[in-house]
Amino acid sequence: TKAFSKMTTGITGGLVPAYAALAANIFAITAAFGALRRAAAFEQLEAGLIRVGNAAGANLPFVAQNLREITNNAISAKSSMEAVAIATSAGFDASQLEELTRVASGASKALGRDMEDALNRLVRGTAKLEPEILDELGIMVRLDDATEAYAATIGKTASQLTRFERQQAFMNAIISEGETKFGDITDAIDPNAYDKLA
User: Fold this and answer.
1) pLDDT band at residue 48, thresholds of 50, 70 and 90?
2) Cβ contacts of 48-57, under 8 Å, gap ≥ 24
3) Any alpha helices (H) in 14-162, and if so which ranges?
4) pLDDT, tens digit, for every residue of 116-128?
5) Which residue from 19, 38, 100, 173 puts its CA 20 to 30 A from 136's CA?
6) pLDDT confidence of residue 25
7) What is the C-alpha to C-alpha distance for residues 132 and 115, in angstroms, rounded to an integer?
8) Contacts (Cβ under 8 Å, ≥6 apart) of 160
9) Torsion angle of alpha carbons 42, 45, 46, 52, nearest 10°?
């Protein structure tokens, strides 16, 4: 905006000062619109989370706050609420989501990855039953192996498992491998100070 303002004083007459003034105003309006839009989306997310939590008998904003505490505030309120919303719609309970968050925190620190991206990958990959999303975090769980092992523990075959049971099998295997690989790192290393600042 300052650069556009200087253009209006440096060149007199003609189209350039008028363009500079117009560009400065459009830039300011666009920035304000973007900020208002993001704020409204956050408020909508929070209201939706409260409503879904009330219907499910759970305090989902509290769960989102717990996720932030697990990561030592290295994720934003918006990211934690999005993770809770996705996990809740996929049928995860709060303790499972907290365990996934611990794995994400450890993977993020061990691999130098963005904490929000790591959490997003774990939650979405687990919900969608897509191991490829998790490969970049060093978690190499194969869905077939996880479902066969889980099915054996509950007296079924892998083909008899429901989608929810397959998801639980996949999540259990992810948490187990993540804890094995990154469990010690989660508490031993502080998160990136710039992630917390952001």
Assistant:
1) low
2) 48/85, 49/81, 49/84, 49/85, 52/85, 52/88, 52/89, 53/88, 56/88
3) 15-56, 60-70, 77-90, 94-111, 115-128, 131-135, 143-153
4) 999 999 999 998 9
5) 38
6) 77
7) 18
8) 151
9) 180
